[in-house]
Amino acid sequence: MSTACLLVGTAVLTLASQDFELRWRHSVERIEWRESWAVDGGRLHLTEAAVKGSGAGMEPGEGARLMKGWWVWRPDLAPVSVLTLAASGATGQGWRLCDAVTCREIGAEPGAPIALRPCGGADVEP
User: Which of 17, 29, 90, 104 could be a cystine partner for 55, CB 3.0 to 4.6 Å?
Assistant: First the structure.
């Protein structure tokens, strides 16, 4: 299994694999979201998205299927060099970032947005 490295704001985070998952609760609807990401060639690629329900601006994506209470789909989006996460503090918790071994909470306190990028990746979107 190969590892990957992410810059989370100014901190370096070594992942147990190339894949990681982000989970959070929508600040208004309080519905759970999760996204599966892969570090690929210095970019981040969204491989799957899921939402536990629906609400204002939270409709499941095209081709979503209901699986064990989650609407799950595979977004057709280009990889990105930077993923920016809001740290509003409005949800009572932060983002949960998990790899194959462990989970960490980031952005729990209100503050500036948090940038996730692969170590050594490009700083600017194409």
Answer: 29
Q: What is the pLDDT of residue 27?
A: 64
What is this structure's pTM? 0.83
Tell me the three-class secondary structure of 32-81, residue by residue: EEEEEEEEECCEEEEEEEEECCCCCCCCCCCCCEEECCEEEECCCCCCEC
| Residue-range domain boundaries for the chain | 4-118
What is the reported pLDDT for 122?
47
| pLDDT < 70 positions in the chain | 1-2, 26-30, 54-58, 88-92, 121-126
Q: Which two tokens stand for residue 39?
A: 């570090």
H/E run at residue 30: none
* pLDDT for residue 103: 94
Tokens of 121: 């990746």
How far is residue 9 from each of residues 2, 27, 111, measured CA to CA in Å? 23, 21, 12
Residues 31 and 61: their CA atoms lie apart, in Å, by 15
CA distances from 94 to 18, 66, 105, 108, 112 (A): 22, 26, 6, 4, 13
